[in-house]
Amino acid sequence: MGKFVQEFKEFAVKGNAIDMAVGVIIGGAFGKIVTSIVNDIIMPPIGWIIGGVNFSDLKVTLPAKTIAGVEMAPATINYGSFIQTIIDFTIIALCVFLLVKGINALKKRKEEPAAPAPAPEPSAEEKLLTEIRDLLKK
Length: 138
What we know:
The protein is mostly helical and 138 residues long.
């Protein structure tokens, strides 16, 4: 049991686990912001343009059923809410795509090797030794 606790402690303290937790928390908050943007800013003008439609009210009501003499409330298929959720997802996916693309571009730029520096001019001693070597070869 002690080894398991030690391994978990090492995992939890690693930067990757902490970074992932921070990302999940920020992602949840970002999702709420996007949902608010879609519900409160994007969808009302779209509904107004197409004739004053409130997307959250769009639904198909199924017939009510009577079970054991009790009439049940009719079920609804809320496709307007589904449309808003699709728009939420699309905006979040686009933002994540742009974020990942930006991070990959930064990594690529960082990984590209710098142009090799030109070879330094040989010193006077090296030139002299090269001349002596060449004369000895002859």
